[in-house]
Amino acid sequence: MTGETLPTPPIWMMRQAGRYLPEYKATRAQAGDFLSLCYNPDLAAEVTLQPIRRYRFDAAILFADILLVPQALGADLWFVTGEGPRLSTITTAEDFAKLKPADAIHDHLAPVYETVKILARELPDQTTLIGFAGAPWTVATYMIAGQGTPDQGPAHALKAENRAVFDALIDRITEASIAYLSMQISAGAEVVKLFDSWAGSLQDADFVEYSIKPMQRITAALKALHPDTPVIAFPRGAGTRYAGAHAATGADCIAVDDGVTAEWAAANLQTGGCVQGNLKSSHMVSGGADLVSETRRIVKAFSQGPHIFNLGHGITPDADPENVQLMIDTIRNGG
Ligand code: CP3
């Protein structure tokens, strides 16, 4: 992931360790539940390694979750089966005042750093280890609403009604993310990624202020501490605002969802540096000739510059593991 243009792009997938794999489900059952799996370094390392063994991906992504940072800051966090995450909410200055300072997160997150250390030891030399955190806006949307929301309404409402608390929360998450990612790099992460999954709902100046700027701040702070560690930024749903994202964020690589075509991204984004994406995750469910032709189209569109093959968003639990192999064979065997 050093920005070279390669004849065959390196490959990994968002959520590559996940419920579409029977071996993941077995290890998760052994851990008891999702959060116990995240905080068990041996089992979290095991599920990180499962897709590497099965598919020989070029990169492994640390198994954890973006919501471990809010928990380390003092929020309650639990997962409701079939529904998703739930957190205690931050909507007032009093709620915010109860959060811990950014430098107090490390005891809680020590098992994650241990997982990174195990992986740095156990991964094959040629497999890159990716650490990650949620970007501040996306993490804030969960901390404010206490759950996932279709339009991030509660976070937009707090931004409009109590800008001081909203800004303080963004700053706290930004500082915690710098501390967290720096520790992941010290423990052995070779690349780090910022997931701004809900960037698309930020309009106009807010997009710059709350998606781009916090990611830029985190990237700059990490570059000062770890100048050789590449950063990937994922402002999902940015649309035409992807143009110029390398310069705006300072990230080495920009992850692209499936809301823009690979041809558009090659012309308007890849000119600034490495890109990663953007196959629709639904092809991992449907497979067949469309999967093959779309995979080829993306490889071709991005072939003139640095590209890492990936999906536009995470692989879903209903995906067929054989379709992942078909995608990989299409890329590695040239078709
Ligand atoms: O990509 C990977 O394989 C690494 C691990 C990883 C997970 N979550 C594991 C996970 C990563 C990088 C994430 C990021 C994450 N988590 C994001 C940003 C990326 C995105 O998908 O937009 C977000 C928004 C979250 C928060 C989160 N975690 C939600 C909303 C959910 C529930 C939805 C779901 O898919 O069930 C989770 C749970 C979660 N995180 C699972 C996994 C494998 C499924 C949990 C299970 O095993 O039941």
What does this structure look like?
With 335 residues, the protein is of the alpha/beta class. It has a single domain (22-333), classed as TIM Barrel (Alpha-Beta Barrel), CATH 3.20.20.210. Helices cover 49% and strands 13% of the residues. The chain is built from 15 helices and nine strands. It has a seven-stranded parallel beta sheet. Helix 11 (245-249) links the parallel strand 6 (231-235) and strand 7. Helix 6 (106-122) runs parallel beside helix 9 (163-187). The longest helix has 25 residues, at 163-187. The protein is globular, with a radius of gyration of 19 Å. The model has no long low-confidence stretch (mean pLDDT 97). It binds coproporphyrinogen III. The site of coproporphyrinogen III has 21 residues, from strand 3 and strand 4. The site of coproporphyrinogen III (CP3) has 21 residues, from strand 3 and strand 4.
Relative strand content: 5-15%
Strands ordered across the widest β-sheet: 1-4-5-6-7-8-9
- Looking at the chains present, what oligomeric state does this protein adopt? single chain
The ligands bound in this entry are:
coproporphyrinogen III
Number of strands: 9
Give the second-level CATH assignment, the architecture.
Answer: Alpha-Beta Barrel
What is the arithmetic mean of pLDDT?
A: 97
Provide the succession of SSEs: HHHEHEEHHEHHHEHEHEHEHHEH
Q: What is the helix content?
A: 40-55%
**Derived structural class:** alpha/beta
Helix count, DSSP H or I runs of 4 or more residues: 15
Q: Give the radius of gyration.
A: 19 Å
End-to-end separation in angstroms reads 23 Å
What is the CATH C-level name? Answer: Alpha Beta
Report the biggest beta sheet as strand number plus sense, adding barrel if it closes.
Answer: 7 strands, parallel
In the CATH scheme, what's the topology name?
Answer: TIM Barrel
Number of domains: 1
Q: Name the overall outline.
A: globular
